[in-house]
Amino acid sequence: MTARYRMSAAVLLAVALAAGCTTTTTSGQDKQPAASAAAADRARAYMRAVLASDWTTACSLMATARRGDCHDRHPTPQPPDPAGPDIGPVLLDRPPTRVPATSAHPAGWGVMVTHTVTWPGKPARASFTALRMTDAAGAWWVEQREDVADSDLTHAADPILSALSREIR
C-alpha cells in the first residue's frame, strides 16, 4: 500500500465520519418533521374552512377547550356574500416552528399561513395568520389564531412566535 493510497483512504474515512455516515437509531428527532407537517396540513384545512365561512368544519378542527366559544360565535352557517372579495389559496408561508407554552395556551407548533384577498377594483393584499397547533389524541388541533402584524414580519426574528406570544388585554 503506497503512502498516497493510505492518505487518500484516511481522508475518505475522515470525510465520511464528518458527514455523519454512521449507523444511528431512530429517535424522537426524526418524528419532528412529520409532526410539524401534519400540524401544518391541519392548520391549512382550518383556514380554508374559516375563509369559506364553513364554521362547522372550522370549529371541529379547534382544540376541545376552544370549540364551545367557536360554536357560540358562529351558531348557524352564513351564505357567502357574492359582493365579497376573491380569496386566494391558503399556503404555508414558512416552515412550522416550536412555540412554548404561555399563561393561556400550551406549547405546540406554530404555523403561519397566508392567502390573498382581492376586493373588486382593488389590488390584491396578502394576509398572514399564525396558528398554535397542539397534539391531543393523536391529532392536531387549533389552539390559538392570531393575525400576523406588519411589525411581526418586519421586526421580529420569528414572526410566528411574536404573533402567538402577544398577551390579550
Describe this structure in words.
- There is one protein chain.
- The chain is an alpha+beta fold and 169 residues long.
- It has a single domain, classed as Nuclear Transport Factor 2, Chain: A (Roll), CATH 3.10.450.
- Helix content is 39%, strand content 23%.
- It has six helices and six strands.
- Strands 1, 2, 3, 4, 5 and 6 form a six-stranded antiparallel sheet that branches.
- Strand 5 (125-136) and strand 6 (139-147) form a beta hairpin.
- The N and C termini lie far apart (75 Å).
Percent range for β-strand residues: 15-25%
Give the total of domains: 1
CATH class: Alpha Beta
What is the level-2 CATH architecture name? Roll
What is the percent of helical residues? 25-40%
Biggest sheet descriptor: 6 strands, antiparallel
Task: Look up the CATH topology.
Answer: Nuclear Transport Factor 2, Chain: A
* Low confidence ranges: 5-30
Q: Give the integer mean of the pLDDT values.
A: 81
Gyration radius (Cα, Å) is: 22 Å
Q: Say how many strands there are.
A: 6
What class, by secondary structure content? alpha+beta
* Distance between the ends: 75 Å
Number of helices: 6
Shape: globular
List the secondary-structure elements in sequence, H or E. HHHHEEEEEEHH
